[in-house]
Known about the structure:
The chain is α/β, with parallel strands linked by helices. The chain is built from eight helices and ten strands. Helix content is about 35%, strand content about 25%.
Amino acid sequence: MSDEVLLRLRDVSRVHGHxxxxxxxxxxVDLTLRAGELVAIMxxxxxxxxxxxxxxxxxxxxxxxxVEVEGRSIVxxxxxxxxxxxxxxxxxxxxxxxxxPTLTAAxxxxxxxELDGASRRVALRSARKSIDDLELGDLVDRFPxxxxxxxxxxxxxxxxxxxxxxVLLADEPTGALDSQTGEAVLRLLRRRIDRGAAGLLVTHDAxxxxxxxxxxxxRDGSVIDENRLQxxxxxxxxxxxx
Length: 242
């Protein structure tokens, strides 16, 4: 793991609503993510896990605090600046993959680069490299309906990390997959992180969190525990007491 910080949340809070319906979705959260590091976010439903991801990626703004992506604050940035940041620095992988059915794997992966102004030729070349880096070259010319769910998920990871983007945000990316396919997706994710990216993985499954370097536990919007992983057995045991 490098000392290079790719994502930092400082004293971040997020409040929804007002008066009697006011909800504090995040409460003074601090989080630092370095190159080569995969951090798992765990907690019960409603604990703030997904809110944390949307704020980390600039899809939502904190009510208080600051968010830095690759050393630059994104709080208060214009809509255009946030869109550029997401195209160039941050990739998302969700259960709803949003692969376009009429585009091949390579074309789906190339799309963020084309939206950022790259020529089709340059974008496709980068897309194929991203796919090859994840050892998925045999899927380059397939359409989504010609792939299994696990293959689609892996192509979504390639799209999330195409070009210069090095921050990956994944919200239950294996939730719709069987255990064997889910493990294959996490192995792929782990390999890409080890090559210099950084990732936040929201999961409810301790066995999936075991692929991470560090586990952050949320409850009611607050970090209640944070620990470096010391093996699956210890993680499972700690989960029983939270």
